[in-house]
Structures
1.
Amino acid sequence: MLNTKSKTVAIVGATGAVGVEFLRCLDEREFPLKELRLLASARSAGKQLSFKGQPLTVAELTDRSFEGVDIALFSAGSDISKKFAPAAVKAGAVVVDNSSAFRMKQDVPLVVPEINPEAIARHKGVIANPNCSAIISITPLWPVHKVNRIRRLNIATYQAASGAGAAAMEELEESTRAYLDGKDYAPKVLPHPYAFNLFSHNADIDPATGYNGEESKVIQETRKIFGDPDIRISITCVRVPVLRAHAVAVSFECEKPITEAEARKLIAGAPGVRIVDDRARNYFPMPRDASGQDDILVGRIRQDVGDPAGHTIALLSAGDQLLKGAALNAVQIAEKLLAA
Ligand code: A2P
């Protein structure tokens, strides 16, 4: 029997790196579904994806795709969101959008369910899923911010291929194979050789500030999610040859002094966070361990000796970019819509 709360859900970008994780999250979390509609470009129409062991056919995304849809999970890039989210909202769906298209719009809630679930109720048809590096950096910090305001954040990211989509993941594998075979490989998706290399994030740089688009997203989105426009943030985003989990080195300065023990206790209590901090074994958060995991792993928690006043803590986190950084966070938002 269908749950009375069962919903018709559409996935826009179902064939993409995040799209297939939407399918997996909806399945594993037993999201009550009346119907699941898979949408992608005309190239994928007719392709079959498996859901709960059954084949589901992908349809071409059009303005008419959303009739009867309750929740539309979008992850097909900003242009597609801008073009098709209005049609979905008009058809009566609530859009949970993984792109950056609407994140900074005043009437669009930007939500990490562990941080600001109350913002969901203010939606006017669209709820935005934050940038993956923002989610992974700030989810562990929220319990600290609530009791001892974080006034300054310094972040360095080590970002996986998945953030640039399935084609970038393929490029990492193919270029690594070519490198090991001693063959030339011309990058097709990312701007620089990826195998055994790293480079400044591929988002465009603002020539006036020297910050790239990814860095600006984390700065602005953190302020919006925390509801604190005055946090001072600096960040350097780097793409590393890792498949699907980002790592972030974070140093945060609080208004009042904070000890390592206090920070550890608060972060350990953060929902969706697991402490991995074994100094004896030199075992700390790694993208390989974070891959496929819902939790954000946090370790290297220590007093930042660069601040002798004792207001600053340094740490290292790793989180699955496709899960908590994208699909899982969006499905958690959809779950909150069910409860509303
Ligand atoms: P398709 O596989 O048919 O190209 P990723 O982030 O991994 O690159 O995935 C992007 C997702 O967005 C894919 O599912 C892709 O579908 C989808 N997509 C890209 N362009 C369009 C489009 N014009 N209309 C609908 N879906 C699109």
2.
Amino acid sequence: MSFDLLGLSDALLKAIDKKGYTTPSPIQEKAIPPILDKKDVLASAQTGTGKTAGFTLPILELLSQKHYDRRRPIRALILTPTRELAAQILDNVKAYSEFVDIRSMVIFGGVNATPQIRGLRNGVDILVATPGRLLDLHEQKALSLGKVEVLVLDEADRMLDMGFKRDINKILALLPTKRQNLLFSATFSKEIKKLAHGILNNPIAVEAAPENTTAEKVNQKMYRVDKAKKTEVAIKLISEGNWKQVLIFTRTKHGANRLSEKLVKNGITSAAIHGNKSQGARTKALSGFKQNKIRVLVATDIAARGLDIPLLPHVINYELPNISEDYVHRIGRTGRAGASGEAISLVSEEEVSYVRGIEKLLGLTIEKEVIDGYEPSFSFNNAATNQGSDKRSTQKPKRSNRNYSRGRRRK
Ligand code: AMP
């Protein structure tokens, strides 16, 4: 299918062409027509599926059909959980709106509000916002939401995880009751369904590829290792494998800092990215990583969520997440767009119980190995969970690149 058939104007097609996209992604193909029909949409899609263009393009199409001579009211509100995501969405909106007369801006916390207030005064058609700062500025009467025609809740599941439910409800109360609602979420817990039910009117449900399709493209492996040896193992894998761009996940902010410092001490350029870092530090770390100036980015789940890091070759789970869905999000950072990627998990005795949940969710048994010289003091069987193979690797990690095999689908 080509973009021409989706009902978008020439001005938008020109911007799409300039971005270099030739065909719509599945979520774009499915979501754009109902959004153009002004229907509410409930979309199951995670980062990497092209979901941002999936809602931005039709919104631009709808908004650009009507012009305001006087000060522009906010007609589309895009709510998203993190500053990084908000900034990324605005980049997309700006790129796609290059040839239409639509003004957009972003507001998020952690930075001076004055320039944001000044920007809002000039009139904005599309506002991308994190919930807290939006409410702050509304309270200061710096913006009005009374003319919003389209509401987007992006990464709705993560907004709930981050405790934004009350803020979202407050924001909903400030919007006109008659409006179009689009809800994007990677997972559908009971809470998300409840939220969707309360917001959406006869929604059209659209779905990108099921989550584990991403997972199947990724070579996954688990190394059984004692907790105290994890840093050494991570350094060994990165150095001996000569890995150039590695995303490492830790469970805690302190853990991210500690590991990043140790990597730097061992001559591996690294930066940590998490909620306690200033906006400036996070942006700098991310751009350094994207430009290959920093070899390793150590991140917590929330900080990494939604970051657009294309074609990442290596992901290391320094610690496994206790929520299985987070594992899927993490490894979704690699193996994109047909490129091969690998996801390595370092599993200590305390984490063995998470393995079963992850494998159940994926419907896969993930290969488990031990690295020579780093034999742990426990076995998966003793830790009472292993269902997969647990064989000893005789290869050095340096060479093991070629030997990472795909997880096997369980019958
Ligand atoms: P998203 O899931 O919205 O974060 O998008 C993930 C990445 O896919 C971004 O780098 C987009 O620029 C890119 N992208 C979005 N739509 C397309 C498309 N139709 N063809 C190729 N790349 C795309």
